[in-house]
Amino acid sequence: MTETPRRRRPSTELVHGGTLRSQWAETSEALFLTQGFVYATAEEAEARFLGTSPGYQYSRFGNPTVTMFEDRMAAFEGAEAARATATGMAAVTSAILCQVSAGDHVVAAKALFGSCRYVVEDLCPRFGIASTLVDGSDLDQWKAAIRPNTKVLFLESPTNPTLEVYDIAAIAEIAHAAGARLVVDNVFATALWQSPLAIGADVVVYSATKHIDGQGRCLGGIVLSSQKFVEDHLQVFIRQTGPSISPFNAWVMLKGLETLALRVEKQTANAARLADTLAGLDGIGRVIYPGRADHPNAAIIAKQMRGGSNLIAFDVEGGKAGAFAFSDALEVVKISNNLGDAKSLITHPATTTHQRLKAEVRAELGISDGLLRLSVGLEDIEDLIEDVTEAAKAARAAV
Ligand SMILES: *Cc1c(COP(=O)(O)O)cnc(C)c1O
């Protein structure tokens, strides 16, 4: 039985939403690590496949532990429905491909996570789905890119790695005026700080690998939308093509949700302090943090976000040599391309996550050779402050 008697506040949903208790009435959600399900009779199997008898058939298209993760996340997000996937990229790819056909057109902001950009820029055109990349902060470019066959607008906000924030409500309006849907990758904001569906987006996607797990263990993803979108497009795509999440990984994500608000609140408070520290250090240039008054999109942030995220981007003087010296001098913060983890992690986008892009494209996206992206974790803030202060000294000495 699903425990959703009335609409509860998001933090309560994170702990109780979607719980399905077995006959043993366990406190912690059960892990149904099973591929399939058995039927009492052949008649019941027939009815299950006809859809006239409720229940599960095969874990590629449904599993009780996966359902708990989907329902808890939908309750937290305020979405009608959700479908979980094996990775964040499976979520993005499914959310876009499930609703387009050859001859359609997709418009996306050019500041995208590398693999998202591949799906839009390289993969879609191979199947006859044209795509256009625009500057996501320029509403006129979104409008100008619309064609009669435009079906999907896609963006990430805040963006990776330069943390630009786009006006989701205004872009959703452009999409709807053209009869298209807006898909938002909400990973960097998390559902705690930004609710794209509430301000006009049609579909929201997450890499659950990031803050939802939050402890660096499992890959996962999730797509949230209306019930109708799931029924008309997403369910059949996932059922027939199989980007499904393992019940084990869904269970880890489900338990991760219980502590998400606590973790992201602490990470965000740490990030706000650390952004201010970085801005005051010699040898550090621009500091981009969505919680700071000097963020270029501060007005949009005030309107659409409830918190600043746990990510900071900043330039180290001395380009690549300065950024490498800074990273190598860190002791508490670890060098890794992941984010949203309990551990603070630093990335040099130009040589890792965005290495595939041409130098001109990186320059256009503001990814300088000295840019670092810091995902702030749960450590004691004083240790983090000492760590970046020492690293900045080492970077100054090196260049
Ligand atoms: C990590 C990430 C993805 C991809 O997620 P995976 O779980 O690694 O497949 C997509 N979008 C954004 C913004 C991400 O940070």
Give short descriptive properties of this protein.
globular; 399 residues; binds pyridoxal-5'-phosphate; five-stranded mixed β-sheet; 15 helices; Aspartate Aminotransferase, domain 2
Percentage of β-strand residues: 5-15%
Cα-to-Cα separation, first versus last residue: 62 Å
Total domains? 2
Overall residue-averaged pLDDT value: 96
Q: Look at the structure and give the CATH class of the largest domain.
A: Alpha Beta
Total strand count, please? 12
CATH topology of the largest domain: Aspartate Aminotransferase, domain 2
Looking at CATH, the homologous superfamily of the largest domain is Type I PLP-dependent aspartate aminotransferase-like (Major domain)
Tell me the radius of gyration. 22 Å
Shape: globular
Secondary structural class: alpha/beta
Helix content: 40-55%
Q: Cofactors and ligands present?
A: pyridoxal-5'-phosphate
Low-confidence stretches: none
Strand order, sheet with most strands: 1-7-6-5-4-2-3
Task: Summarize this structure briefly.
The chain has helices spanning 10-16, 42-50, 64-77, 88-97, 114-126, 139-145, 168-177, 190-193, 227-241, 247-258, 260-279, 298-304, 319-329, 359-364, 381-398, and strands at residues 81-85, 105-109, 130-134, 150-156, 181-185, 203-207, 221-225, 284-288, 311-316, 334-335, 345-347, 371-375. The chain is α/β, with parallel strands linked by helices and 399 residues long.
Please describe what this structure looks like:
The structure is a single chain. By secondary structure, the protein is an alpha/beta fold. It folds into two domains: 249 residues, Aspartate Aminotransferase, domain 2; 138 residues, Aspartate Aminotransferase, domain 1 (Alpha-Beta Complex), CATH 3.90.1150. It is built from 15 helices and twelve strands. The strands form two sheets. Strands 1-7-6-5-4-2-3 form a seven-stranded mixed β-sheet, sandwiched between helices. Helix 5 links the parallel strand 2 and strand 3. 51% of the residues are buried. The structure holds pyridoxal-5'-phosphate.
